[in-house]
Amino acid sequence: MSRFYASIQGNRGGATRQGTPGSGITGHIRGWRIGARAACLAIDDKDVVRIWLTGGSSGRKSDILLAEVFEDTGVLYLIGKAELKRQMKSAGYNV
What we know:
- With 95 residues, the protein is mostly beta strands.
- The protein has one domain (23-91).
- Helix content is 12%, strand content 51%.
- The protein contains 1 helix and 7 strands, in the order E-E-E-E-E-E-E-H.
- The strands form 2 sheets. It has a 5-stranded antiparallel sheet. It has a two-stranded antiparallel ribbon with strand order 1-2.
- The longest helix is centred in the C-terminal third of the chain and has 11 residues, at 81-91.
């Protein structure tokens, strides 16, 4: 059994991938100008999930970390609305 596992579905069917504690697993779902990246990582042998807002396929905007959750403590980092707006403006989004 894999430590990390991902699945995706599109117009050509589904695909799955596995990740190890060393590799983690990352996925990037995107349109032309906006997207989301999610990652599952092992840090000190504990699972961590991170989610970013991305500039999509164009890649013209910087990624912005939206949330981070630590499995062992349940600690959730969630960017606040004001900080998110500031970072989005700085990255070139129209907000």
